[in-house]
C-alpha cells in the first residue's frame, strides 16, 4: 500500500467496547529483544540503526514484544488486556517493507482455556467488525500437545528441544526426523578433544578449549566463550548418538499427519495415544478444556481445522496457536506465549496469549472494505 492511513475509528470502537487498554508503542525500539526472541535471521529483514551511545535500535518490526516489555517496566497488575494499532516495519517476501497491524495481548489470566477462547473469539469478532463476513478458514495447532507426545514417546530431552524449535517449519522438522532415523556423526575432532566429548565431561572440555584458545593467542572472552563452545560440542555429539526406533519414528509421522475438524480431534488424539501406548492422556486435559471454552462462547468446533503439525518455530510459544486465512493469505495470527514474559525480564511467569491482524491484507482483498483512506480522504 502506498502511503495509506488506516481508518482507526472502527477498530478503536471495538477496543473500547471490549474494555481494552490501547497502548502507544514508539516506532524506534531497541533491537536486541527482537533478535534474542526471533533469532538472527530477523536481522536481515528489519531496519536497524544506532543512537549516539552506540546502542542498536530498529524500526518497530511488530507489537507483541514491546507491549510485553512496557507491561513489565510499568509494573502493571494482571490480568490486563492491551490493544494496539499502527504500522510495523520489516521486509516481506513480497517486497513490501511496512504494513499495518492491529491486535490484542491478553496477559496474566491464569484460566488459560478461558483466555484462549476469548482470544480466538475476539479475533473472529474483530474480523467481522471491520470486514463484515468474509469467507475464511481457521487453522489451529498446539505446541504443548506436540511437546507432550515427544516426551511420552521417550525422545531424549536434547532432541525434544531441537524438534520443538522446528515445530511449524515442515522442511526443518522433516530433515531432523531424517537425521534421527539415520544419524551420522558430524564431528571430526582431534583425539584428545573427542575423548572429552564422548565422555560428556563439560568441565574438562571447557578447560581444554580455554587452554587451546590461550595457546593460540585468542582471548576466551572474544566471541563465544569456552563454556558455550563446549556445550555445543556436547550437544552435537549427543544428537548424533541418538537413533529413533522404527515404531517411534512411525508414531511421530502419524501424529504429524493428523488434520481434521476440531470436533473430531479429541477422539483422534486419544486413539493415537492408545494405539502407541502413551503413558497417559494428561496432555489432552488442556486441549479438552479449551474446546469446552470455545463451545461456551458459541464457536462451532466443526468450523475449526486442527492440524497436529501446525505450530510456530519460536521458543516462547507454549500452547494454542491459530491462523485465520482467506484463501492462502493469513489475515490473523495468534497464540499462547507463556515463556515470553520471563524471557523479557519479568520476575515471575505470566501467562499470555494474543493475536495480530494484517490490515493491509484485508484491505487489499477488498473484503467489504476495511476503512482504508488515502491522505486526501478518499476511499481506496
Automatic annotation (TrEMBL):
Coiled-coil intervals, chain numbering: none
Signal peptide: none
Keywords: Amino-acid biosynthesis, Glycosyltransferase, Histidine biosynthesis, Transferase
Keyword Cell division recorded: no
SUPFAM superfamilies: Class II aaRS and biotin synthetases (SSF55681)
Binding site for L-histidine: 62-64, 90, 101, 105, 312, 316-317
A Gene Ontology BP annotation from the UniProt entry: histidyl-tRNA aminoacylation
GO molecular function terms listed in the Swiss-Prot or TrEMBL record: glycosyltransferase activity; histidine-tRNA ligase activity
TM segment ranges: none
Alphabetized InterPro entries for the sequence: aa-tRNA-synth_II/BPL/LPL (IPR045864), HisRS-like_core (IPR041715), HisRS/HisZ (IPR004516)
A GO CC term assigned to this protein in UniProt: cytoplasm
Domain Class II Histidinyl-tRNA synthetase (HisRS)-like catalytic core: 13-202, 237-362
Record-linked PANTHER family: HISTIDINE--TRNA LIGASE, MITOCHONDRIAL-RELATED, HISTIDYL-TRNA SYNTHETASE
NCBIfam families (alphabetical): PRK12295.1-4
Protein name: ATP phosphoribosyltransferase regulatory subunit
Organism: Bartonella choladocola
Higher taxonomy: Bacteria, Pseudomonadati, Pseudomonadota, Alphaproteobacteria, Hyphomicrobiales
